[in-house]
Amino acid sequence: MTPSASPPPTGAGPVPLARAARLRPGARVAVVAPSGPVPAERLDAGLDVLRGWDLDPVVAPHARDVHPDLGYLAGRDEHRAQDLQDAWCDPSVDAVLCARGGYGAHRMVDLLDWTAIRAAGPKVFVGYSDTTVLHEAFALRAGFSTLLGPMVAAETFLKDPATQEALRATLFAPETVRTLGLETAASLVPGRARGVTYGGCVSLLAADLGTPAARTSARGGLLVVEDVTEDPYRIDGILTRLLRSGALEGIAGVVCGSWEGCGPYDRVRAVLADRLGTLGVPVVEELGFGHGPSTLTIPLGLPAVLDAPSDGRRATLTVDVPALI
Fold first, then answer.
1. Phi, psi of 236 (to 5 degrees)
2. Short-list 20, 34, 155, CA closest to 93
3. Choosing from 136, 226, 285, 286, which is the catalytic residue?
4. Which residue is catalytic, options 6, 35, 79, 129?
5. What residue spans define the domains of the chain?
């Protein structure tokens, strides 16, 4: 596999991206591990869930690997990249689902042949956490919309029926899940905004700053963020870096998900209010996605409306079109 030179991101803000086709019963889906090693029993359990949806899951050749020297990686960088590349370019594969997060996507994203991926066209891609860098790459280098959603071997996906149903509905009947927001969703900064969704794990977005293919402008975008096991002072530092870099200049609104393991939520909330409140745009908290005990599937790269009511009603994010065609 030869990495290709990819066109640099434009200075324009997020624009609506190409959507993949929805899944049908019998669809063939590839399960890849672009980041950390995958516990075998959890992967097997996740595959059983997919089979219960009448899907045909195929485990990528290196998805069960562990790097021989760096045990925090699911195999060598070139093998993890090859698995994703081959799955995407295989016309018999309808979707590429990530097995888990962890660490490692930044190491392999530049090994992918983005010319070949663009030529293969959009497919369903699902993941969160460390796969944030891949969501950004699919958006900026290929022009494809993706799904920020649960991973096949993640404990939340295996244990929470609501998380499973949110993903299943998005994959098979996306028109039924256009308005998103759990009962916890509330207005941190009231208002209403329209923009194109982008984002993921906020520490990964900050880690991408300054890299050759990073997003240069988010003007008009609806920033979707969450994180896990980051102390409040570290979240402050991450958001401050994004602010100082100009990466958040001109965004239309912010959608916050879970902050699992980040300390008492009142302390996290104070940081979010302090750092994001300076933007002068609507901010929603606890919409219900990310590393929390129950998670929605959020379409990225699509136009949407963020509604943060000032009267205490539940906040919502509504995509203009179904996540999949």
1. -55, -50
2. 20
3. 226
4. 129
5. 28-175, 179-319
Burial zone of 191 (CB within 10 Å; 0-12 exposed, 13-18 middle, 19+ buried): middle
| Alpha-carbon span 176 to 169, nearest angstrom | 7
* 221 contacts 195 by C-beta, under 8 angstroms: yes
Q: Using alpha carbons only, how large is the chain's radius of gyration in Å? A: 18
Token duo for residue 42: 């959890």
Q: Which residues contact 228 (CB under 8 A, 6 or more apart)?
A: 129, 201, 258, 259, 260, 261, 262, 290, 291
Instruction: Please tell me what DSSP assigns to residue 294.
Output: S
Q: What is the CATH number of domain 28-175?
A: 3.40.50.10740
What is the tens place of the pLDDT at every residue in 129-184?
A: 999 999 999 999 999 999 999 999 999 999 999 999 999 999 999 999 999 999 99
What is the DSSP code (8-state) at residue 314?
P
Q: d(Cα 149, Cα 297) in Å, to the nearest integer?
A: 4
Is pTM beyond 0.85 here? yes
Indicate if the alpha-carbon torsion angle 192, 195, 197, 199 is positive or negative: negative
Dihedral sign of CA atoms 23, 26, 32, 36 in order: positive
Count, residues in the chain: 325
CATH annotation of 179-319: 3.50.30.60
Two tokens at 314?
A: 């539940």
Annotated catalytic residue 155: no
CA 301 to chain centre: 10
The answer to whether residue 226 is catalytic is yes
